[in-house]
Amino acid sequence: MQSNRKHVIIGILWPSFWMAIILSGVVFSALDPQVLAHHMGYDSISGLGCYTLGFFFFWGTCAWSGFFSIIFSQRR
Fold this sequence. Notes:
With 76 residues, this protein is mostly helical. It is 83% helix and 0% strand. It is built from three helices and no strands.
């Protein structure tokens, strides 16, 4: 049972990590995150901080999607 839970967690986090890398590359090649942060009123965030927050946002979003895909695909 414990091993199955680890496989589910890895099955959610690992693909979402790779998708966050791809999304960060695509989105941040078209948009400058510091300009977006400036327009939202966050002038004190560095460029690296903007990229980091964006990556973790994409990773969390993809993980959330993967989590619900696994939950809704299970038979009960």
